[in-house]
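Troubleshooting log. The previous structure file for this entry was overwritten by mistake, so regenerating from the original sequence record. Sequence copied from the archived sheet and checked twice against the printout by T.R.
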Amino acid sequence: MSLKAFHLVFIVASVLLMTGFSAWGGARWRTTGDVVDLAWCFLGGVAAVGLVVYARYFLKKLKHISYL
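Regenerated output below.
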């Protein structure tokens, strides 16, 4: 596995983690109503979107390098 492929796997895992973190914060906010939990939900979503943007930039920048 090349460094490029490993990097993409790590980015995808991070996006999934941040999406789950955001969902957890949202579910917790629905039960407790605490503003801090809503902030965690929002920050997790922002981080997930930021990682997707970074992945697109990364793929565009390194399109000439193979995955092998």
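Helices lie at 3-32, 35-61. Archived copy saved in two places this time.
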